[in-house]
């Protein structure tokens, strides 16, 4: 939406070509593939609110003094680009979602629902890790018995 923002990023000029986004998508996917191959679980969430819900948020920020600080006229200018942002989000998600690093597009008009979806996704990912407490070897268990006995004796002194 704003090429001037990209210009301020101090990206080497040789990298700013007409293929910049395709190349960035490739880099993102490659990095995520590397992380996944090394055992990192990648969970990406896109909280998708509707244009109407955004409008309600803006109205609340204007109407409630405690939320005035959240309001910015820049948000209204960006809202005019809603369709372009939607297309950009689809492009990013389409090009950077993979089996190892899928995007979870979450309807977020209702916070409670978004939290349920995200929470259940995180819990499912943790369950798949099949985490277990470390096992203590028998010699250590014997040593623990001696330490326990000594600690209990301390309390009787």
Chart the SSEs and their pairings:
Elements: H1 3-7, H2 20-37, E1 44-48, H3 51-63, H4 73-79, H5 82-96, E2 103-107, H6 111-128, H7 138-155
Parallel strand pairs: 1-2
Describe this entry's structure for a reader.
By secondary structure, the protein is mainly alpha-helical. The protein has a single domain (43-155), classed as Rossmann fold (3-Layer(aba) Sandwich), CATH 3.40.50. The chain is 60% helix and 6% strand. It contains 7 helices and 2 strands. A two-stranded parallel sheet has the order 1-2. The mean pLDDT is 94.
Structural class: mainly alpha
SSE pattern, N- to C-terminal: HHEHHHEHH
What form results from the Cα inertia axes? extended
Strand arrangement, major sheet = 1-2
Number of helices: 7
Question: What portion of residues belong to β-strands?
Answer: 5-15%
Query: End-to-end span in angstroms?
Result: 75 Å
The tally of beta strands, per DSSP, is: 2
Which consecutive residue ranges, at least 5 long each, have pLDDT under 50?
A: none
The total number of structural domains is 1
Name its key features.
two-stranded parallel ribbon; 157 residues; single chain; 6% strand; Rossmann fold; mainly alpha
What's a concise summary of this model?
By secondary structure, the chain is mainly α. It is 60% helix and 6% strand.
């Amino acid at each position: 939406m704003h090429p001037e923002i990209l210009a301020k990023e101090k990206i080497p000029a040789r990298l700013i070509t007409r293929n910049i986004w395709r190349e960035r998508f490739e880099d993102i996917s490659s990095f995520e593939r590397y992380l996944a191959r090394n055992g990192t679980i990648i969970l990406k969430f896109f909280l998708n609110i509707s244009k109407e819900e955004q409008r309600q948020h803006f109205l609340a920020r204007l109407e409630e003094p405690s939320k005035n600080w959240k309001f910015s006229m820049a948000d209204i200018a960006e809202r005019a680009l809603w369709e372009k942002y939607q297309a950009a989000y689809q492009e990013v998600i389409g090009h950077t979602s993979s089996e190892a690093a899928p995007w979870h597009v979450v309807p977020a008009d209702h916070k409670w629902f978004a939290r349920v979806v995200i929470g259940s996704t995180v819990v499912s990912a943790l369950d798949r890790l099949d985490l277990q407490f470390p096992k203590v070897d028998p010699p250590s268990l014997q040593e623990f018995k001696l330490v326990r006995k000594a600690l209990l004796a301390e309390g009787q002194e």
